[in-house]
Amino acid sequence: MTNANETAKSLDFSGIVDALSRTQDALRLQMDAFGEEIDADFTGLAATMETVRGKIAEIDRYQAVLDEMLTASATSAAQIEDRIGWGTDHSRALREALDEALDTGPQQLSGALETVARRAAIPLGAGFDRLDDIRRRGRLRVAVEPQFVGLSFRKTPGGPLMGLDADYARAFAAFLGVACEFVEHPWSELTQLLHTGRKPGEAPADLVWSALPPDPGYHEIAYSETYTWLPFAMYRRPGDTWLTSPRDLAGKTVGIINDPGAVVVLEKLGLRWSENSARPGGRVRLGNLIAFNDQGRIHDALADGLVDAFMVDRPIFHWAATHPESRWRGRFEVVPGNLSERPYYYTVAVAATRPRPASCPRSTASCASSWRPRNAAASR
C-alpha cells in the first residue's frame, strides 16, 4: 500500500491539468477573437458585395439609358436618310423632266412638271385651298400619334383609335360632312406629313390633331386657335416621396417627349443637362435627359425605373395612371402642380399653303369651340 501511495504521488498530473486548462482558456480566447475577426470580415465583405451589386445595377441602368438614347438616335438618322433619299429621287425626276422638255420643246415642260408633282402629291394650282379639296374628295386625312394613351390610342390591338384628340378629329370630320381617315405616325414627325406622305407617292395629311403645342421651329405650319388647355406635370413612382419638385432631380434621369416645348419648360425651371449645361440660369443639374420618340415606351420607362421622373402634358399620363382598364394603373402618380408658367395648350396644324392658308384652321377652331363645353372634363 505504501508503494501504491508513493506511486500515486509520483504520478500527480495536476500541474499538467492546470497547464492544459490554461492552454484551453487561451485557445478559447484566441478562437473567440478569431471568430470576431471573421465575422467582421464577412460583414465587410457583405457590405462590399452590396456596394458592388449597387454599382452593377447603376451600370445596367446607365446602359439601359444609353441603349434608349442610341435607339432614338438611330431611328432619327434612318428617318433623315429616308427623307434625303426621297428628295434625291424627286430632284432626279425633276431634272429628267427638264431634260426631256429641253429635248422635245418648251411646250412639254408644263406637262412634265405636272407629272413630277403628281408623283410627289404636290398641289400646283395657284388657287388651291385644302378645305375645298377635303370637301371635294369627301375624306379628311388626320395625322396622329397612335400611342398617346388618353389622347389617341387603342385599348386592344386592332381596335379603333380612342381618346380626346381622336374624338375631336372625328367630330371635325362630321362637322365638315366628310369621313375621317387617321394617318398614324410617330409624333415627332407628324408635322412633316403636312408636306409629304409617309412614303413616296402618298398624299400629305390634311392636318395634325395630336397633342401639338405651336412652335416657331416647325417649318411652314399654320395653327388653329387653342382647343385644349392643360397642366404640364411631373410624374413619379408611388413611394418616391422624396420627389416633390424639380429641385429634387439633381443627378437623376428625367424623361420627356421629344417636344421642343417641353425642353423650353425644363430650361425655364432651371434644369440643366449635358446639352445645355452652359446656358445661364441653371439651378439643378440632371444626370440624364431622355427625349422619347417612341411614345409606346414612355409609360414603361417610368414604371420600370428607366427614368426617375417623367415631365409631360398631364393628359398623356392621366388615363394610364388612373383608369381601371390601364395596365399602368397605380404604377406612377402625378406630383401636384403645373410646371409651366402658364397652362400648356394644344392646337391643330395645317400646311401654310397660299393664297388661303387660314380656312382650315378657322374651321377647326369653329368646330372645337362648339364642341368643347360637352367635353371639357376630358382635359382635366
From TrEMBL:
In its keyword annotation, does this UniProt entry include Signal?
Answer: yes
Residue ranges spanning the membrane: these are none
Q: Which UniProt keywords apply?
A: Signal
* Annotated region (Disordered), positions in chain: 356-380
Q: Which residues form the Solute-binding protein family 3/N-terminal domain?
A: 139-375
Q: List the InterPro entries.
A: Solute-binding_3/MltF_N
- Signal found in the keyword field: yes
Q: What is this protein called?
A: Bacterial extracellular solute-binding protein, family 3
- What is the organism of origin for this protein? Methylobrevis pamukkalensis
